[in-house]
Design brief:
Length: 238
């Protein structure tokens, strides 16, 4: 049986075809990017990417990792657009390519990055691919800590679900993101589509962003035991 790492590395190898000399590349966050994509990219493209590309990281995790690897970085504030962003996700719906992101807590930066990228390419293993994202799946929501309690109260009252403020390991209390915010994990309520929940959440004052990525993903490479599956969003020009 193939290990998770080898599935993710096979998918990462395919995504490399999107990296051309001179391009500005966005980097998502999490273990797939840090432990599969970046090592594979360095193995296969080596000094070429170090000398010919700039990278825009979406978190301190990836910023520090990229610096250790000798990559040249730009911040989001320094670029007008990004040619392609390579990222992962927690769940991806097979038909729509809607993704849930934010297990690593970097989804606000990742969403801004993807919004200025010509293409967003995801690398996942087969365990993250689902036919449909089910009620109860946790949707991360980023909220500044100064008003986390009223926002939490309103979400529970209006959605009729119990939500939780994310806590971390290695620190007591709430997870505080790289941008200084807290995260509420909201279970997708019965009877709500992801689009309906996303629209509702964006209307709640205090909500900065959600981990629902709709109509943003261009392509997904899925590492499976039988090779890499390629899924493309309909109507997207790559
Ligand atoms: C971080 C993310 C990650 O892409 C997502 O959580 C997947 O992480 P991993 O590669 O560790 O499974 O959205 O905000």
């Amino acid at each position: 049986m193939s290990s998770l790492l080898s599935l993710r590395k096979s998918a990462s190898r395919k995504a490399l075809s999107y990296i051309k000399p001179g391009m500005i590349i966005g980097l998502g966050s999490g273990s797939t990017i840090a432990e599969s994509f970046l090592p594979v990219m360095l193995e296969e493209a080596g000094s070429d990417v170090v000398e010919k590309n700039f990278f825009v990281p979406s978190s301190r995790q990836i910023e520090f990792r990229a610096l250790e690897l000798g990559l040249r970085l730009l911040s989001l504030n320094q670029v007008e657009k990004v040619d392609v962003t390579i990222d992962s996700a927690d769940l991806v719906e097979k038909e729509s390519l809607t993704a849930i992101k934010g297990g690593g807590g970097a989804f606000l930066m990742e969403k801004v990055l993807s919004s200025i990228s010509d293409n967003l390419i995801l690398i996942i293993d087969e365990n993250k691919l689902v036919e449909k994202i089910q009620p109860g799946s946790l949707i991360p929501v980023e909220v500044p800590p100064d008003f986390i309690i009223p926002v939490k109260r309103r979400l529970e009252k209006e959605l009729g679900v119990s939500v939780r403020i994310r806590t971390g390991s290695g620190k007591v209390g709430p997870v505080i993101t790289d941008l200084g915010n807290a995260i509420i994990d909201v279970p997708l309520p019965e009877g709500y589509s992801l689009g309906q929940l996303d629209s509702f959440l964006h209307r709640v004052p205090g909500v900065l962003e959600t981990g629902i990525f709709r109509d943003l993903v261009s392509k997904v490479y899925v590492g499976t035991g039988n090779g890499v599956l390629e899924l493309e969003r309909r109507g997207v020009m790559l």
